[in-house]
# Entry
Amino acid sequence: MASLTKSALITGSSRGIGRGIALKLAEQKVKIAINYVKNEAAAKDTLAKVRENGSDGFVVQADVCQPQEIQRMFAKAKSEFGNLNIFVSNARTEVPSFYSGPMDITLEQWDTAMNSQAKAFLVGIREAVALMKEGGRVIAITYAPGGRTGSWQPWVAMGSAKVAMESLCRYFAVALATRGITVNSISPGWIEDSVLNALPQQAQQMIHEWHASGWTPTKHIGRPADIGNAVALLCSEEASWITGQLLTVDGGSSLMDPGLPLALQLG
# Structure
């Protein structure tokens, strides 16, 4: 990715993981469309940092829960960039809009989670590939444990929505393979400046201490830049034969066995 002719649209990239992805791709001279829903100041700050990293781009407001706004966002990308090389579906609706257990969650909360993930990805990828040529990259930021476990009860809607998005990645990977466009998903572990920030301070401290104790073998949670590095890896030319895959980026925490005491696992 040595040329400024490459471009990317990253939803939810004004802060957190999305910002980490934007800044990593900017280091590789990729132009960035920075999407935000409310915090324009944060989006402009990300754009300033993109420019500090030697690239350029623009900010665009859009609520990914609204298909017409997604379409407007990609129309803006087309007018600014002409074409698109990378689409990263990262945006997530705010935690209070869906955070409720399976016995209490409302249909409105359920729909909000689904609309922000699976439905937004379905609309977004079809808009994105219309602007892509061979070598295009599509990446969805997901959370695999939410679709594999049931212990984090208030995450039921988002966990279900994320696993639906992972499934869509596999279907689109097959559909777009002959066009030379890859579609993959990345499942981050616990990351600084992410959904973690939406939890009470006591919960944040507990999570930090839990992972530092060894439940993440690297003994610390991740940074947005760690996910940016993973995205850059999947966007590289060398990754052209990797498609339909879920890449877990969690410092090894998914390797730990909750059925065994930590002292026995770490020897």
